[in-house]
Write a structure and sequence with these properties.
Layout: E1 11-15, H1 20-31, E2 35-39, H2 43-55, E3 60-63, H3 70-84, E4 89-92, H4 107-135, E5 138-143, H5 156-176, E6 181-188, H6 194-202, H7 204-213, H8 226-233, E7 244-247
Parallel strand pairs: 1-2, 1-4, 2-3, 4-5, 5-6, 6-7
Helix pairs in contact: 1-8, 3-4, 4-5, 6-7
């Protein structure tokens, strides 16, 4: 019998899995034995990510999708099931942000952020449920943020979407427990990715403030989220659902 953290024979779909946090999680799942499907908008980045996963000895495919479109989300899930034979794990990671004061957002920008981060998470979760029911269960990992906990002056729509992701996670967990589906959220702290690197370079004082407040004394890296994702994707977390777990080096507990 395999160990509780072993994902051999399992199939995971990671949206936005071609870089940053998503790729860090995808690599962790692959290292634990899962076959991984990556959905990403940048075909070149996705191809490079697939090559990395295959170089690890894993089985990996790329799928194209607009996660904010219900039909496209459904087709994405069907493609994964057709090509990899089943689907056991969803990591709803894809997301975007636009930074500006609340009064400067257009309604279109508001909808773009909410539609991708919150509606997209809902549509992907809804799309995988039939496959999970057919398999006798499944795991959904949503991705929140420190903005799920704290406010921010120039991230109003993003914070609203990530707060919504946590509440959606709890609601799905309650509703789908009857199908043996566990739904949990990871709340990443300040993670060193290409998306955050530019901001740190333009505002080096922000880097210092984050490090000063973080008990771990550093920014995180995408690989720091892999262990938690493997845990939440595995049998080890079968009695854990509806949680929102910070992976932030202690940032959110420090006064």
């Amino acid at each position: 019998m395999t160990g509780p953290f072993d994902l051999t024979g399992r199939v995971a779909l990671v949206t936005g899995g071609n870089g940053g946090i998503g790729l860090g999680i995808a690599k962790g799942l692959a290292a634990a034995g899962a076959s991984v499907a990556i959905a990403g908008r940048n075909a070149e980045k996705t191809a490079a990510a697939i090559a990395e996963l295959k170089a690890m000895g894993g089985r990996a495919i790329a799928v194209a999708a607009d996660i904010a479109d219900e039909t496209s989300a459904g087709q994405m899930v069907q493609t994964v099931a057709d090509q990899l034979g089943r689907l056991d794990i969803l990591v709803a990671n894809a997301g975007i942000n636009i930074r500006k004061p609340p009064e400067d957002y257009s309604l279109a920008e508001w909808h773009t952020i909410l539609d991708t981060n919150l509606t997209g998470t809902f549509l992907c979760a809804k799309a995988v449920l039939p496959a999970f029911k057919a398999a006798g269960g499944g795991k959904i990992i949503t991705i929140g943020s420190m903005a799920s906990i704290f406010g921010g002056g120039i991230i109003g729509p993003y914070a609203a979407s990530k707060g919504g992701v946590v509440q959606l996670t709890k609601s799905l967990a309650v509703s789908w427990a009857q199908h043996n589906v566990q739904v949990n959220a990871i709340l990443p702290g300040f993670i060193d990715t290409p998306l955050t690197r530019g901001g740190r370079q333009s505002a080096p004082e922000m880097f210092a403030k984050v490090v000063d407040r973080t008990p771990a004394g550093r920014w995180g890296v995408p690989e720091d989220l892999a262990g938690l994702a493997v845990f939440l994707a595995s049998r080890a977390s079968d009695f854990i659902t509806g949680t929102a777990i910070p992976a932030d080096g202690g940032y959110s507990i420090h006064l």
